[in-house]
Amino acid sequence: MRRLLLDVAWALNGFERARRRDLVFDWPQPGAVADGGAKAFGAFVRHQTRTREGIRVVVSGNHVAALLGLAAPNESCILDGRLYVRPDALDAAGKRRLWWLIRELDGLA
């Protein structure tokens, strides 16, 4: 799955090499409310991605969608401006849909 997500990110970048930047979210933070992780994660993602022009974000997994305050979709889709890759829907039809979504983000669909 990690390899697929890296390939998806590569396709979103026009198949050109770019410096990859992984963001690490550590929780809980000292002094923070233990059950406030979902709200903090959503704020972290919004802060890290709001100021970057043209940034594309790929997310995957039911838990990540929930942490962003969104319901996990039944298929890969554009979820709140991010490319959501459903990890268990990667049959031939799911991969075709994923490719169509990548093209849609590039304005080619």
Attribute tags:
single chain, 109 residues, mainly alpha, 3-stranded mixed sheet, 4 helices, 41% helix, globular
Description:
By secondary structure, the chain is mainly alpha-helical. Strand 2 and strand 3 (82-85) form a beta hairpin. It has helices at residues 2-12, 37-50, 62-67, 92-105, and strands spanning 58-60, 77-79, 82-85. A three-stranded mixed beta sheet has the order 1-3-2. It starts with a helix and ends with a helix. The protein is built from four helices and three strands, in the order H-H-E-H-E-E-H.
Write the layout of secondary structure elements.
Blueprint: H1 2-12, H2 37-50, E1 58-60, H3 62-67, E2 77-79, E3 82-85, H4 92-105
Parallel strand pairs: 1-3
Antiparallel strand pairs: 2-3
Brief synopsis:
By secondary structure, the chain is mainly alpha-helical. It contains 4 helices and 3 strands.
Ends: how far apart?
25 Å
Largest sheet: 3 strands, mixed
State mean pLDDT (0 to 100 scale): 81
Beta-strand residue fraction: 5-15%
Based on Cα principal axes, name the global outline. globular
- Kindly name the structural category: mainly alpha
Spatial strand order of the main sheet:
1-3-2
Estimate the helix proportion, in percent. 40-55%
Low-confidence spans: none
Strands, total number? 3
Instruction: Give the radius of gyration.
Output: 15 Å
What's the number of helices?
A: 4
N-to-C series of helices and strands: HHEHEEH
